[in-house]
Amino acid sequence: MAKEIRYPENLPLRFEVFKSGRKMKELAKAIGISRELLSYTINGHYKGINVVPKLKKELGIE
To answer: What angle do CA 42, 46, 50 make, to 5 degrees?
Structure first.
């Protein structure tokens, strides 16, 4: 049974991470969070108020 996606607004970030060609572990380390938290955020299970802006900055979005 799949988890409910509570924050669908974060799902486009999943594509941006894939498009960047960088590994999740590398991105998580660069923005100072755990890989698990990054995964939960980009898959829509965690809102990531502090994570999303850092990730967007690291990926050069906005």
So the answer is: 85
pTM over 0.85: yes
Residue 55 buriedness (CB in 10 A; 0-12 / 13-18 / 19+): buried
Measured between alpha carbons, how far is 9 from 23 in angstroms, rounded to an integer? 21
How crowded is residue 49: how many other Cβ atoms within 10 Å of its Cβ? 8
Write out the DSSP string of the chain. -PPP-S-GGGHHHHHHHHHHT--HHHHHHHHTS-HHHHHHHHTTSS--TTHHHHHHHHHT--
pLDDT, tens digit, 9 for 90 and up, residues 23-53: 999 999 999 999 999 999 999 999 999 999 9
- Whether residue 19 is predicted with pLDDT greater than 90 in this model: the reply is yes
Two tokens at 8?
């669908």
